Amino acid sequence: KEHMSRQIDLFETHIKYAKDDNATIIVHTRDADDETLSIIKNNSKNNDTRFLIHCFTGNLKFAKSLLDLGCYISFSGIITFKNTIELQDVVKYVPIDRMLIETDSPYLSPNPYRGKKNSPENVIYVAQKVSKLKNISLDEVGIKTSENFFKAFNI
């Protein structure tokens, strides 16, 4: 509980500095859906703050709430694992114009390299899985997620 309170204080400080610099806030959240949503909601009232949820592993309800707040959601190699059906359903739901893909190198190598050291070139396996799950072309995944990167980071 005391660690959570400290993390919340630091997160809110991080958001303050990001707002001052018009920077995108990258969020990695685990086992704190309600707290994360509350903080993002309190800090995105004027749509003046961009949030990217990194390495998303949450459920559909959490994803819907984040999307309602204007967040971008990024998926890693975890979506290629056989036992992540619920997360794959989230990928199907998240609009391609709010999605990014990543490797989270050197961790979370996608299939067929699960358990090995991950590297940036493995993002293709994440893109292929998104393509398959959303029934869109691999080119579209690459183009849209690249466009989203530039929008998310205001580049």
What is the structure about, briefly put?
The chain has helices spanning 2-20, 33-42, 60-68, 85-93, 123-134, 138-152, and strands at 25-27, 51-53, 72-75, 99-101. It has 155 residues and is α/β, with parallel strands linked by helices.
Which descriptors apply to this entry?
6 helices, four-stranded parallel beta sheet, 48% helix, TIM Barrel, 155 residues, alpha/beta
Structure, explained:
The chain has helices spanning about 1-20, 35-40, 60-70, 85-95, 125-135, 140-150; strands at about 25, 50-55, 70-75, 100. It has about 160 residues and is of the alpha/beta class. The protein has one domain (about 1-150): Alpha-Beta Barrel (TIM Barrel), CATH 3.20.20. A four-stranded parallel beta sheet has the order 1-2-3-4. Strand 3 (about 70-75), helix 4 (about 85-95) and strand 4 form a beta-alpha-beta unit. Helix 5 (about 125-135) packs across helix 6. The radius of gyration is 16 Å and the shape is globular. The protein starts with a helix and ends with a helix.
Sequence of strands across the biggest β-sheet = 1-2-3-4
Mean pLDDT, as a whole number?
A: 94
CATH C-level class: Alpha Beta
C-alpha geometry? globular
- Main β sheet profile: 4 strands, parallel
Domains (count):
1
CATH superfamily: Metal-dependent hydrolases
What's the architecture, going by CATH?
Alpha-Beta Barrel
Q: Mind telling me the C-alpha Rg?
A: 16 Å
Number of helices: 6
